[in-house]
Amino acid sequence: MEHALKILGKASSINVRKVLWTCEELGVTYEREDWGSGFASTHSPEFTRLNPNAQVPVIIDDAGVLWESNTICRYLAGKHHNHELLPNEPAARARVEQWMDWQATELNRSWGYAFTALVRKDPEFQDPHQIGVGINDWNHKMSILEHQLAATKAYVAGPRFTLADIVIGLSVNRWLMTPMERPDFPAVDEYFQRLAQRPGFLKHGCNGLP
């Protein structure tokens, strides 16, 4: 029997893991296919017909094809009527989506050069000045998260776990695993320990892969 949901993307991808963790929280079954570096090429005509950006993840279900990891997470929570992960009330929902968008547009952008240099060790990303600038920017963005978590004393968008914690929790994992100097952020440390109590995080979050 085929699963109703198919996920295209390798399990080590941070963006694929957002979707896998969301499925774990929702109790959704799925079939996953390996696509991406080291596996089937996302630049193949077969894949780009599904996502012209040639990036994972892509999902396919009875509603069709969808890409962009944060959008997929929102879609799955909405489809399965989970108002804890994605509140139905407009203001509460907007706060969750605000932090999800921040992760995608601000936090993600900050780590690009430093992560590519220090973890992927790409020879074209080895300028010491650029690495230093990247580390400083990354740490600055994490200071914004530290301030927010110190205020909520729980999760990113407030007292309850939401989709914002899935996408940002994986980003915290990446920050902690990158070999570089980091400030002492006690609220982030406590937050990471809270996430580590969740089965979905243990399975798809802190899995030893950046």
Portion in beta strands: 5-15%
Number of E-state strands: 4
Low-confidence stretches: none
Tally of discrete structural domains: 2
Largest sheet: 4 strands, mixed
Q: Give the proportion of residues in helices.
A: 40-55%
Silhouette? globular
In whole angstroms, the N-to-C terminal distance is: 33 Å
CATH class of the largest domain: Mainly Alpha
User: Helix tally?
Assistant: 8
Structural class of the helix and strand makeup?
Answer: alpha+beta
Using only C-alpha atoms, the radius of gyration works out to: 17 Å
Give the SSE order as H and E letters: EHEHEEHHHHHH
Question: What would you note in describing this structure?
Answer:
By secondary structure, the protein is α+β, with helices and mostly antiparallel strands. It folds into 2 domains: 6-79, Glutaredoxin, CATH 3.40.30; 90-202, Glutathione S-transferase Yfyf (Class Pi), Chain A, domain 2 (Up-down Bundle), CATH 1.20.1050.10. It is built from 8 helices and 4 strands; from the N terminus they run βαβαββαααααα. The protein has helices spanning 14-26, 45-48, 69-79, 90-118, 128-152, 163-177, 186-195, 199-204; strands spanning 6-8, 31-33, 58-61, 64-67. A 4-stranded mixed beta sheet has the order 2-1-3-4, covered by helices on one side. β3 (58-61) and β4 form a beta hairpin. α1 (14-26) packs parallel to α3 (69-79) and α4 (90-118) runs antiparallel to α5. The two termini are 33 Å apart. The model has no long low-confidence stretch (mean pLDDT 95).
